[in-house]
Amino acid sequence: MRTQFLSIVVASLAVSAPAIAQQTLAYDVQPSQSNFTWSGTTSLGNIVGNPSNAFQVDGTSQLSIAPVGGNGYGAVQMVGGDAFVVPDIHGKIPNPIPFLPPLATIDVLNLHLSPTSDPFSVNPIGSSFSTMVTLTALSGTLVVTPLGGSAQTTDLTGSASTPSAASGSLGTSLTFGESLLVVPVNSTFPFSDSASGISGTITVTGTLTAYWGPQFPTSYCTAKPNSQGCTPGMGWFGFAVYSTPGSQLFLISAAFVLNNKSGLLFYGSQPANLPFQGGTLCVQPPIKRTPIQNSGGNPPPNDCSGGFSIDFNSYIASGVDATLVPGRVVYAQWWYRDPGFSAPNNTGLTNALQFTIVP
Fold it and tell me: In the chain, at which end, N or C, are there fewer CB atoms within 10 A of the end residue's CB?
């Protein structure tokens, strides 16, 4: 019974807890909210859209996040990704004589950018930050076609913008369980075409918006019917949030368990489907456990009026487990005493819950 369960717990606790490490998360860029315009100047004159100077950005942006004791961010840094321009950029240098063809056309094709920044801190009030942002081309081709000449191409791979100041925000949507990155961008790329002699700059201005999530908890595995004939079940309310645990509950509960019995929530990093104490162990060892609770409910005799609940965000914030960091996938299950069964099966088990910790 309890001896078998405790042997698993003791074995898991014998594994030393790793230190809190930097986490790298891939945020999905939202093109409908990442709207940009471009402008340009050259040695021959200004570049105008041909026909438009508007575009959007899609793809990914990667953030490296250093957790701090389950109660906020340490250093955060944009460390790359693949943010690509949609559609391609098409421009022209107008001819001073209006009815004549443009002096040149300038096209930027298949432009993929990697956004990086200096490390920055996030203000816990308002989720704001300030940093320096650089855009580096992962791929792209510059095509310059001068009036009366042939198209000249330049590979833009490795070209980088001048670092520019950016003031954005990194917060969490408590409604949808998403982490939201918003970064205003104003970056300038120099270019030079040796064949035509045309040189200049292109400046892109807009807002990069990217989400990580949503991360909705999901139930899995099979509960063990208890000695009163009830099948206990897990419930949840909210999302597991790392940075602002005090502003959001993440309640993990159990219902239809025996009244006035001791129990606890245990969890790990992998799911399982193993025979265990007459039921199913849904979490792969090594496992960790939360403090013991009493199920409460009606006075004796035994019935199914008991229940358990824990605010897992408060548990994260306590810092008792340094592995509970943004991006961590957690598998959890309730265990409790059930004296209506003979040893060693005199315990109860709910089904299980999978969830991911939102930054």
Answer: N
Cα–Cα distance list, 93 to 42, 105, 314 (Å): 8, 6, 59
Helices (H), the chain: 2-13, 312-317
pLDDT in tens, the chain (359 residues): 333 333 333 233 233 333 445 678 889 999 999 999 999 999 999 999 999 999 999 999 999 987 665 445 678 999 999 999 999 999 999 999 999 999 999 999 999 999 999 999 988 777 899 999 999 999 999 999 999 999 999 999 999 999 999 999 988 665 556 788 999 999 999 988 888 888 999 999 999 999 987 668 999 999 999 999 999 999 998 888 887 655 678 999 999 999 999 999 999 999 999 999 999 999 999 999 999 999 999 999 999 999 999 999 999 988 899 899 888 999 999 999 999 999 999 999 999 999 998 87
Class for domain 23-212, per CATH? mainly beta
- Buried residues in 258-277 as b, exposed as e (16+ CB within 10 A): bbbbebbbbbbeeebeeebb
Domain ranges for the chain, please list them. Answer: 23-212, 215-356
